[in-house]
Specification:
By secondary structure, the chain is α/β, with parallel strands linked by helices. The chain has two domains: 7-36 and 171-248, Rossmann fold (3-Layer(aba) Sandwich); 42-166, Rossmann fold. It is 32% helix and 22% strand. Strands 3-8-7-4-5-6 form a six-stranded mixed sheet. The relative contact order is 0.16.
Length: 251
């Protein structure tokens, strides 16, 4: 069976390392893979942040769900000339996010907690063990409500602070859009596709996505989902992609 997927668009920045599995897949299956984020993150100005009337130093703990949130939190602190006390506690969704804090603070001298499993439930259980803290959660203007609902259910004292915004990374008029497959990682990516191409017709274009909320956005948009991750057989997007291409090639 001839492979009719020749050109893929992965809606993420190009991997920094040549060791990325995407490059192995491109070589192994003779496909062209382009990297082009459909969304981009923009900072909120200190003036815009002040309009939320949030005083960062009123809080004794910060919850980070993404590395982007860490960058924008410390950027705003610098712009607002706020010195974060050494007593501040940090609660992170994953170990990788916790380790990223080293970019801004002396890691071993701080109280840092993270969910071993990377799951929200575990993070909330950790937070609930420190019920006296006042928690601040830096978020994007577009974010899911799951964490908020879990924290409210536990009666945790917390406040969400918008520190950055997610916007559509628009395509230019002369930018070719001739892909056989599109790979998405967030519902915002699907929204951006439909904003850039209001007359988008899927036809033979395959769509792959990572995560249940992205899968739901694909289906809600009336599109066909061809490749989904994570699954027990394919824990990563690249694993799912490889399985699909292998099957397509009839190996």
């Amino acid at each position: 069976m001839a492979l009719n997927i020749k050109k893929l668009l992965v809606s993420q920045p190009k991997p920094a390392s040549e060791k990325s599995p995407y490059f192995d897949i491109a070589q192994k299956y003779g496909v062209e893979i382009n990297f082009r984020p459909f969304i981009k993150v923009e900072p909120l100005s200190s003036k815009e942040f002040r309009q939320q009337r949030i005083s960062i130093l009123d809080y004794s703990a910060i919850v980070f769900t993404a590395r982007t949130a860490i960058d924008h939190f410390f950027r705003l602190c610098e712009e607002l000339r706020i010195t974060i006390p050494e007593t501040m506690k940090y609660f992170c969704m994953t170990e990788a996010i916790a380790v990223y804090l080293q970019k801004y603070i002396v890691y071993r001298k701080r109280k840092i907690f993270f969910a071993q499993s990377g799951k929200q439930d575990e993070l909330v259980t950790l937070i609930a063990k420190h019920p006296k803290e006042k928690y601040l959660i830096p978020v994007s203007d577009v974010h899911k409500d799951d964490l908020r609902q879990l924290l409210e259910a536990k009666k945790i004292n917390f406040k969400e602070a918008i520190m950055y915004r997610t916007v559509s990374n628009d395509f230019t008029k002369d930018e070719k859009f001739d892909y056989d497959m599109l790979v998405f990682f967030s519902p915002a990516g699907i929204s951006s596709l439909l904003k850039n191409f209001p007359d988008f017709k899927q036809d033979d274009i395959r769509i792959g996505c990572f995560g249940p909320s992205t899968a739901k956005a694909v289906k809600d948009a009336g599109l066909r989902l061809d490749v989904e991750a994570p699954t027990p057989e394919a824990p990563s997007m690249t694993a799912a992609l490889e399985q699909y291409l292998k099957k397509e090639m009839g190996d």
